[in-house]
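stage 2 :: seqdesign
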């Protein structure tokens, strides 16, 4: 029960985006990310250094490649974790009717740019 209350308190502090108030929201969300974990804001500003690696599957032939989505090094795992956290927080601050629209973006930087647009 205590964990649920602490999560609700943390979510209550998130600045929710409201129609027509983007500039003020941007200032508040930037401050929120920087206070919580500056690495998350860097992911939004600069993008993520983790990139899926193209892998050729032997059973499908040499012309078909897929992207490996599992990070392998500690640094890649940290980058992926930061991107997932930043993306999740951005989704939480959107009104419910916009969450499905913005859920299609695969990284936090492109999602933030789409919210701005």
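stage 2 :: out
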């Amino acid at each position: 029960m205590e964990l649920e209350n602490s999560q609700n308190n943390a979510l209550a502090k998130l600045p929710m985006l409201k129609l027509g108030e983007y500039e003020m929201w941007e200032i508040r969300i930037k401050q929120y990310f920087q206070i919580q974990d500056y690495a998350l804001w860097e992911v939004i500003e600069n993008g993520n250094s983790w990139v899926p690696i193209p892998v050729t599957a032997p059973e499908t032939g040499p012309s078909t490649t897929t992207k490996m989505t599992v990070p392998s090094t500690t640094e890649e795992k940290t980058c992926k974790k930061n991107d997932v956290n930043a993306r999740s927080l951005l989704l939480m601050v959107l009104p419910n009717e916009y969450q499905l629209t913005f859920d299609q973006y695969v990284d936090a930087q492109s999602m933030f740019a789409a919210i701005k647009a």
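stage 3 :: structure notes
- The chain has one domain: 2-116.
- The radius of gyration is 17 Å.
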